[in-house]
Amino acid sequence: RFSGNDFEIIIIDDGSPDGTQEIAEQLQKIYGSDKIVMREIISVLFSSGTAYIHGMKHATGNFIVIMDADLSHHLVFLIKPIAYRKQKEGNFDIVSGTRYKGNGGVYGWDLKRKLISRGANFITQVLLRPGASDLTGSFRLYRREVLQKLMEKCVSKGYVFQMEMIVRARQLGYTIGEVPISFVDRVYGESKLGGNEIVSFLKGLLTLFATT
């Protein structure tokens, strides 16, 4: 109503420790389950890729916006649909939010987390030359058919999945636009990023370097 576009909101809970499921259940009680759609993934291995695949089964729009449910990506990005406007300007297949270009930025992270994110993006730029400035962020708009095709091609799990999506998109000749965004660290809950995820990211990066 506020943005001037018709859209639906689908919440996918993939076992995150940030309390997504509890908050979504509260919203369902307030607005009704016909307005707030939540689906839980029951799986031994959780990943952002699994959430994408699960969400696609329920999404009905021609364009799909992916964003974090902990509000690190502010809802203003939907109310003032910067990604959708960018898509229209250049007729892009993908519009990716970037924390490292223009007036984009990160707020609330400690130095360690900033170094990890910056380091991951720097190494990726050097090895893969992806043509996008933020490879590990997850605020993106996709054409529905493009997202479907990329999910069929991508094999990575966890945090490296976001990176592979952009790399595969370049391989397939899809166009990518970028919009600066501000990422604010979550107020409640905790991140799933840990040592195992970092090791998996590095393994995935080397795999992409060797195969692309």
Protein architecture, described:
- Helices cover 43% and strands 15% of the residues.
- The chain has 212 residues and is an alpha/beta fold.
- It folds into 2 domains: 1-61, no CATH class; 62-211, no CATH class.
- It has a 4-stranded mixed beta sheet. Strands 1-2 form a two-stranded parallel sheet.
- The longest helix has 18 residues, at 111-128.
- The radius of gyration is 17 Å and the shape is globular.
In short:
By secondary structure, this protein is α/β, with parallel strands linked by helices. It contains eight helices and eight strands; from the N terminus they run βαβαβααββαβααββα.
- Cα separation of the termini: 43 Å
Q: Structural class of the secondary structure composition?
A: alpha/beta
Total individual domains: 2
Shape: globular
Largest β-sheet summary: 4 strands, mixed
Mean pLDDT equals 79
Helix content: 40-55%
Poorly predicted ranges: 42-47
Helix count equals 8
Number of strands: 8
> How would you spell out the order of helices and strands?
EHEHEHHEEHEHHEEH
